[in-house]
Write a structure and sequence with these properties.
Elements: H1 3-9, E1 15-18, H2 26-31, E2 38-41, H3 51-56, E3 60-63, H4 69-84, H5 87-95, E4 113-117, H6 121-132, E5 136-140, H7 146-152, E6 155-156, H8 159-165, E7 168-171, H9 185-189, E8 195-199, H10 208-217, E9 220-225, H11 238-241, E10 245-247, H12 256-284, H13 290-298, H14 304-311, H15 315-323
The protein binds nicotinamide-adenine-dinucleotide and 3-phosphoglyceric acid (3PG).
């Protein structure tokens, strides 16, 4: 649907399920007021949903946090290996009739230091796989427990230490106000000359103009990017067209297996949230006497199925059910 179509139709639905391409703006949430109860993000990142506006509209936001983890980690590893061996550039050159063996000498991964920025589900799976490739793995994550990293053979370090020591830096943090453009002129300046960057997180964590400058100066040897500040990026984007940049169109979660898993995970999450919303409606229904409502709230109404069932009953039977 186009944004205009979504605005026109959203009020007809109790739940809306989106991927990253759909922006659930304040305007969309306002248009859905009165009916829309749940927004399901069929994936991890919820930076495309206006959470404040959703809260104000009384709309629950749920995501599918686990089903695409491995797909995203595998894509990160694919980009890492592809970039280190100039696969996309050599492929394009050979298809253009150029047999350039000397131009496309790569670098080895074994023994190199990889910094994982954001040691959550995807980051830790990338770490596991990089250990298998013989890389030395360090990680930065202000919230990750050190024993989780140790168990994988990775060392948790500060942001400054991670970016200063790494030969390769792979980004796996969410896009939040705190992570917006944290990779900028200043942080690129603190990295090793000739560092390699992989981003399968969000384009917005990098200042893309600063990355172009770092690529032009040779500070960054190459970058492999699955995500961009604006998607799709402009056709004449200097970053996308840069000869030392490998790009994919936000494919991290796009495997058959991941999408099937995400579909199931988000259906369950949205179903649960709708039952919860129905439970709230049941408890707050005008025919529920105040003392019964208080009792139900004391019980936290944790049995959503029970409460949802109540909401489907007519007034007097709802009252009797609430009493019992
Ligand atoms: N390219 C894709 O298709 C694709 C697929 C899946 C996920 N993603 C992106 O990757 C991100 C990570 O996914 P995940 O499933 O691992 O999420 P996650 O929540 O499991 O992990 C994110 C980690 O980042 C850490 N973090 C938060 N702020 C940080 C900061 N300032 N510095 C360093 N670390 C910080 C958190 O503590 C957490 O451990 C998602 O938010 C999403 O944007 C992209
Ligand atoms: O946050 C995510 O889960 C990924 O970026 C995948 O998003 P997509 O399913 O919209 O491609």
């Amino acid at each position: 649907m186009s944004p205009a179509e979504l605005l026109a139709k959203v009020a007809q639905f109790d739940a809306l399920i989106v991927r990253s391409g759909t922006k659930v703006t304040r305007e969309v949430l306002e248009a859905g007021r009165g009916r829309l109860r749940v927004v399901g993000r069929a994936g991890v990142g919820i930076d495309n949903v206006d959470l404040q506006a959703a809260t104000e509209a009384g709309c629950l936001v749920v995501n599918a946090p686990t089903a695409n983890t491995v797909a995203a980690a595998e894509h990160g590893i694919a980009l890492l290996a592809c970039m280190a061996r100039n696969v996309s550039q050599a492929d394009a050159a050979l298809k253009a009739g150029k047999w350039q063996r000397a131009k496309y000498v790569g670098v080895s991964l074994v023994g190199k230091t990889l910094a994982i920025m954001g040691f959550g589900k995807v980051g830790s799976e990338v770490a596991r796989r990089a250990k298998g490739l013989g890389m030395h793995v360090i990680a930065h994550d202000p919230y990750a427990p050190a024993d989780k990293a140790r168990a994988i053979g990775a060392e948790l370090v500060s942001f400054e230490e991670a970016i200063a020591k790494a030969d390769f830096i792979s980004l796996h943090m969410p896009l939040t106000p705190a992570t917006s453009k944290v990779f900028n002129d200043e942080s690129f300046g603190k990295m090793k000359t000739g560092v390699w960057i992989i981003n399968v997180a969000r384009g917005g964590v990098i200042d893309e103009d600063a990355l172009v400058r770092a690529l032009d100066s040779g500070k960054v040897a190459q970058a492999a990017l699955d995500v961009f500040t604006v998607e799709p990026p402009a056709k004449d984007s200097k970053l996308v067209l840069h000869e030392n940049v490998t790009v994919t169109p936000h494919l991290g979660a796009s495997t058959v297996e991941a999408q099937e898993g995400v579909a199931i995970e988000i259906a369950e999450a949205v179903g649960g949230a709708l039952r919860g919303a129905l439970a709230a409606t049941a408890v707050n229904a005008p025919m529920v006497p105040a003392e019964v409502r208080t009792k139900l709230l004391e019980m936290s109404v944790i049995d959503c199925d029970y409460a949802a069932n109540l909401s489907s009953k007519s007034g007097s039977s709802l009252y009797r059910s609430c009493q019992s």
